[in-house]
Amino acid sequence: MDPVLVTLGDVSLRKSDLVLLNDGEWLNDAVIQFALERLELDGAVDRRRTALVGPAVVHLLRHIDDEDFARSVANPLKLESKETVFLPVNDSEG
Fold it and tell me: Which GO terms describe its biological process (predicted)?
């Protein structure tokens, strides 16, 4: 059993996710998304100037072959109007 230890916004961290915070471990999407949620909820990010794009969206954008579909995913983020865009990328394919 892998119980949920904490939920923030739409993301939950499980006991197995916390192990990934140890030295030498790789962060997963849940840990990264939790950190992004925390930054936004704490007001550490000016949403008018900065976009924090979640890892699931970044993964989707990286693997979309259909340019129109990619635009339909990216356009609501209004990335062109931001001074800073944070796109967490992982090497999930090794």
Answer: protein deneddylation
